[in-house]
Amino acid sequence: MVSEDQFDIALIDCEMPEMNGFEATKLIRQYEHEENLKPLSIVALTAHVAKEHQQECIDYGMNLHLSKPLSLHELKNTLLKAKALHHTIHVQDTDRNTGLS
């Protein structure tokens, strides 16, 4: 799935053809676990704005939710949150592996 390069953030459309974003996220999370990779921040892209749909995204392992259509400002803010989240996850994993807290 991921070769030499590890990505920090993925924007995944929930309504993709062939494989929806929920299935894709499940496979990504499974792959990360099997390969002992640090989790990337996954941002759900969807036209659905209901709280139930946002919760479904989180339940499937996505970290953040972004509703379409979106503005450049919303995208920038969400990417900044995702970057901060990715850094936090990486620091926690590093601490866990070294015994630091």
Outline the biggest β-sheet: 3 strands, parallel
Structural class: alpha/beta
Instruction: Specify the CATH homologous superfamily.
Output: Response regulator
Number of helices: 3
**β-strand amount:** 5-15%
The N- to C-terminal Cα distance equals: 31 Å
CATH class: Alpha Beta
What is the name of the CATH topology?
A: Rossmann fold
Average of per-residue pLDDT values: 83
| Topology as a string of helices (H) and strands (E) | EHEHEH
In the predicted model, the low-confidence regions spanning at least 5 consecutive residues are 94-101
Spatial sequence of strands, sheet with the most strands:
1-2-3
CATH architecture: 3-Layer(aba) Sandwich
Counted beta strands: 3
Question: How does this model look, in words?
Answer:
With 101 residues, this protein is an alpha/beta fold. It has a single domain, classed as Response regulator (Rossmann fold). It contains three helices and three strands; from the N terminus they run βαβαβα. The chain has helices at 21-34, 51-59, 72-98; strands spanning 9-13, 41-46, 64-67. It has a three-stranded parallel sheet, sandwiched between helices. The radius of gyration is 14 Å and the shape is globular. The termini are far apart. The model is unreliable at 94-101 (pLDDT under 50).
